[in-house]
Amino acid sequence: MASRPPRTRPGRPAPLGATVLAGGVNFSVFAKDADAVTLVLFDVPDAPRPVAEIPLDPAVNRTSYYWHVLVPGLGPGQVYGWRVDGPYAPEQGLLYRGNKILLDPYGLAVVGQEIYDRRAAQGDGDNTDRCLRSVVVDPRDYDWEDDAPLPRARGREVIYEAHVGGFTAADVGLDAPLRGTYAGLAARADYLRDLGVTAVELMPVCAFDPQDAPAGRTNVWGYSSVSFFAPHRPFSSDRSPLGPVREFRDMVKALHRAGLKVILDVVFNHTAEGGPDGPTLCWRGFENKAYYILGPDMSSYADFTGCGNTFNANHSISRRLILAALRHWVHHMHVDGFRFDLASALARGEDGEPLEHAPILWAIGSDPELADTTLIAEAWDAGGLYQLGSLPGDGFAQWNGAFRDDLRRFLRGDDGMIEAVMARVTGSCDLLPPPDNLPFHSINYVTCHDGFTLRDLVSYDRKHNEANGESNRDGTDTNFSWNCGHEGPTDDPDILALRRRQARNFLTLLLLSHGTPMILMGDECGHTRQGNNNPWCQDNALNHLEWGRNRDKDLARFTAALISLARAVPALQANRWWTATGPGVTGEITWHGLEPGRPDWSPASRHLAWTLERPGDPGRLLVLVNTDDREAEFELPPARDRRPWALVLDTAVDPDAGFNPPGKGPRVSGPRYVLADHAVAVFYSGEEPIV
User: Fold this and answer.
1) Which residues on adjacent β-strands are paired with residue 635?
2) 293 with 312: CB under 8 angstroms?
3) What does the CA dihedral 201, 202, 203, 205 come to, rounded to 10 degrees?
4) What is the pLDDT of residue 659?
5) Which of 104, 212, 265, 341 is catalytic?
């Protein structure tokens, strides 16, 4: 039984959450239609029973829709939760269950993972002994030293999408307790810096529910939030109540010292509470109608996410919560940016219909406290809404799925891809038109967490997701991949050589296209998921970065050299649209085919080339691409100032031959160059740049 409740004071409705004050903690939550609210205190994170329960008196502890209380003597590290009782009337959208312990929607830390049981949070039974709990945190209590969120890059960012747990889970070079943790990622900051990336985009680190997965499997990727504020505790080597908050901040500080921005993949479109029969963990237990988009009958959820529910992001209460979470991560955790998962779901109103001016998206893009923060949107949702180039709001860069698909189809040799690839190489102004967009608003990628890795993209024609337990039905069937002649692993040297070439082709076009490139964790070293294009529930080698003998060190060196080359090309580092050379116009980019100035736009064309330079640039870059099954002879355009073209790279050449810095490679002796089938070559002419 709980001990006698401590003496309390009425408290105040603002700020929401648990606020550390001199001599105590003020607690405040929103619960508009609740009849009774009780603050529950635990003495340790895994205590089976509360040490105290404090019923709130609506005559004293309620102001408008807010329930609040100040408890003297409490401080940081206090474990707590809430009981909220009221009508259980699904037909009215009310789902109160007073026997469930609820997380604070504004809670800054979450404990109880060791005793948590998702099933106990479902149905009518009491789950006090098997629940997640919140922790009181003083966000001011940390020595940031001289750290601050990093300023905007002078050139373009190069983003590395990573999973905190998977990044070092298999890293035997680290002490075992650090593997798969924030501290482990911090310890490898130099690896990321040396690779040349400028920002790390972390898959969800807000506390999530690993049990939200099929039986016998684990939700690894984390797109199943239980908190929008708290760092995921299992990613911390310090499992004390406040440990994850400190360790996350230590990681941010280490990455900043290595010159790396930290971007968080945030999931505000749905939560771990699932459908109406899902667990009561937090939001629905406080005010179901405010936090979720309900169906016409009020008892069901509108599901535009494929995950059972859709967060009601444009309700005033939910909108305030999201903005508070973003500001917290920036101000108190020094995060540099956010990637919004299924951002188009945030463009839906309370009836589920798309809004032309979605309040939450406009509020995020125009918030002065987020003005210097990187904002990236995944501009679609599972309900069929696709808003690439038309997402409401301002200031969002966008994941460019067309870049991925068009380059995949082009490099496998599909018909009719030349004009589409020309648009992708130049920044996709057809999809993200000026003046509202600039080239860096296009987040270019050929792979991401969702889909094949780069190695699998060139090794499989079909997905192989049987291990997920859904009879290979999950994951997309539209991969535009090519196995180069054999499905999966092979010892055939010709197929292996072609696969290595194709991987280098993808990386070369990705890094030398206008826009902001993003690289998937492991693509730089040949990581495979064995053809599984949706291993969200696989806590094993499919999601663990390879650090051992199977690591492709040649590809890693090639990737680092490519990033360095792109940094030395001024036209790629300037966030303005290129003009194309044409009759009477000298632009930054000049298109070619097998002959200079004569691109072949016919459906059967498999050859494309271009030169890239700006007035005042030290040199000129030439790119040749042959996606045909046969070698091709390109006539080279005149070199700059009679300086010969020097080979930088040819993806058909064994990578052991090296990557030539601009101006240092072998000179082309004649006006023609023979390029192997399925290959890309890059040349440089001019003064030697600093790389």
Assistant:
1) 672
2) yes
3) -150
4) 83
5) 341
Distance CA 150, CA 139 (A): 20
Say yes or no to pLDDT of 327 above 70: yes
pTM over 0.90: yes
Q: Looking at domain 580-686, which of 1.10.3470.10, 2.60.40.1180, 3.10.450.70, 1.10.357.10 is its CATH number? A: 2.60.40.1180
Phi and psi torsions of 382, nearest 5°? -75, -5
Burial letters 411-437, b for 16+ CB under 10 A, else e? bbebeebbebbbebbbbbbebbeeeeb
Is 378 in the active site?
Answer: yes
pLDDT at 2 over 60: no
Q: Is the pLDDT of residue 688 over 80?
A: no
Residue 94 β-bridge partners = 89
Q: Find the helix or strand (DSSP H, E) in which 607 lies.
A: strand 607-612
Contact in structure between 681 and 633 (CB atoms under 8 Å):
no
* Nearest to 99, CA basis, from 107, 110, 88, 115: 88
Q: Rounded to whole angstroms, how far apart are CA atoms 604 and 77?
A: 66
Annotated catalytic residue: which of 336, 378, 456, 650? 378
DSSP for 162-173, please give it: E-HHHHHTT-TT
How confident is the model over 247-278, as pLDDT tens digits? 999 999 999 999 999 999 999 999 999 999 99
Quick: pLDDT tens for 409-425: 999 999 999 999 999 99
Q: Residues 73-93: what's their mean pLDDT? A: 97
Q: What gap in Å lies between CA 475 and CA 486, rounded to an integer?
A: 21
Q: Please state whether 663 falls in left (phi above 0), alpha (psi between -120 and 50) or beta.
A: left
Whether 341 is a known active-site residue: answer: yes
Residue 653 CA to residue 647 CA, distance in Å, equals: 11
Q: What are phi and psi of 210, to 5 degrees?
A: -65, -20
CATH topology of domain 400-567: TIM Barrel (3.20.20)
Please state the rounded mean pLDDT for residues 143-153.
Answer: 92
**Secondary structure (H, E, C), 613-641:** CCCCCCEEEEEEEECCCCCEEEECCCCHH
Contact 75, 20 (CB under 8 A): yes
pLDDT value for 1: 42
pLDDT digits (tens, 9 = 90+) for 429-457: 999 999 999 999 999 999 999 999 999 99
79 backbone dihedrals φ, ψ, rounded to 5°: -90, 135
Domain ranges of the chain: 400-567, 580-686
Is the pLDDT at 147 greater than 70? The verdict is: yes
Cα 671 to Cα 673: distance, rounded to the nearest angstrom: 7
pLDDT at 392 over 80: yes
